[in-house]
């Protein structure tokens, strides 16, 4: 049996979280999300960044405090599969702000549907979303 990949390795392997992984690298978080945990990540796929002009993304990457706030708003401590989240209405992200969870036939985080769920990693779970969570 092969060993499970950590959150960073799995995100890179999937290949649809390039901007999120780049943000983690820019902030020096790759070691943390490779070795620590467990964490649950609501990871925006590349499609989420398409409507945003490159200049805006570049500005966000240049403002480390803002970028850290955004990245940490997509992460919660603990390993939460979708079946765990279905019974929770509010959960706190790593930046200290709350995320609203609703389950009306589809599981939504702040009104954004989880498109690919329960991607298990050695130190957590990735749920793919098609929009960026804004604190």
Rg on CA atoms, Å: 14 Å
Strand content: 25-35%
Fraction of helical residues: 25-40%
Largest sheet: 7 strands, mixed
Low-confidence stretches: none
CATH superfamily: FAS1 domain
Question: How do the helices and strands follow one another from N- to C-terminus?
Answer: HHHEHHEHEEEEE
For the record, the count of structural domains works out to 1
CATH topology: FAS1 domain
Judging from the principal axes of the Cα atoms, what is the shape? Answer: globular
Strand order in the largest sheet:
2-1-7-6-5-4-3
What is the straight-line distance between the termini? 40 Å
Total DSSP helices: 6
What CATH architecture would you give?
A: Roll
Keywords:
135 residues, FAS1 domain, seven-stranded mixed beta sheet, 6 helices, 7 strands, 33% helix, globular
Briefly summarize what is shown.
With 135 residues, the protein is α+β, with helices and mostly antiparallel strands.
Provide an overview of this structure.
This is Fasciclin domain protein. InterPro entries: Adhesion/Biosynth-related, FAS1_dom_sf, FAS1_domain. It comes from Methanococcoides burtonii (strain DSM 6242 / NBRC 107633 / OCM 468 / ACE-M). Residues 4-133 form the FAS1 domain. The protein has helices at residues 7-14, 18-26, 30-35, 54-62, 64-72, 82-85; strands at residues 39-44, 75-77, 90-92, 98-104, 106-109, 112-121, 124-129. It is an alpha+beta fold. It has a seven-stranded mixed beta sheet with strand order 2-1-7-6-5-4-3. A hairpin with a 1-residue loop joins strand 4 (98-104) and strand 5. The longest helix has 9 residues, at 18-26. It is globular and about 40 Å long. The termini are far apart.
């Amino acid at each position: 049996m092969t060993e499970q990949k950590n959150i960073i390795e799995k995100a890179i392997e999937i290949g649809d979280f390039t901007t999120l992984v780049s943000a983690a690298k820019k902030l020096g978080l790759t070691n943390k999300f490779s070795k620590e945990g467990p964490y649950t990540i609501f990871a925006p796929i590349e499609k989420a960044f398409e409507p945003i002009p490159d200049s805006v993304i570049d500005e966000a990457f240049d403002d480390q405090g803002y970028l850290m706030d955004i990245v940490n708003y997509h992460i919660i401590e603990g390993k939460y599969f979708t079946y765990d989240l279905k019974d929770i209405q509010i959960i706190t992200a790593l930046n200290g702000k709350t995320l609203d969870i609703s389950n009306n036939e589809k599981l939504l985080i702040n009104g954004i549907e989880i498109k690919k769920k329960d991607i298990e990693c050695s130190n957590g779970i990735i749920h793919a979303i098609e929009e960026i969570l804004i604190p």
